[in-house]
Amino acid sequence: MSEARRATGSRTRWQAPRAAPATVTNVDGKSGFAIGGRAARRGEAEVAAVMKERLAGHAAKSRAPDRGRELAGFADVANACGARFHFAHPRHPWERGCNENFDGPLRGYLPKGMPLDDVPDGEIRAALDRLNLRPRKHLGWRTPYEVYHSVELHLV
Question: Which of 33, 76, 92, 155 could form a disulfide with 28 if both were Cys (CB 3.0 to 4.6 A apart)?
Answer without folding.
Answer: 33
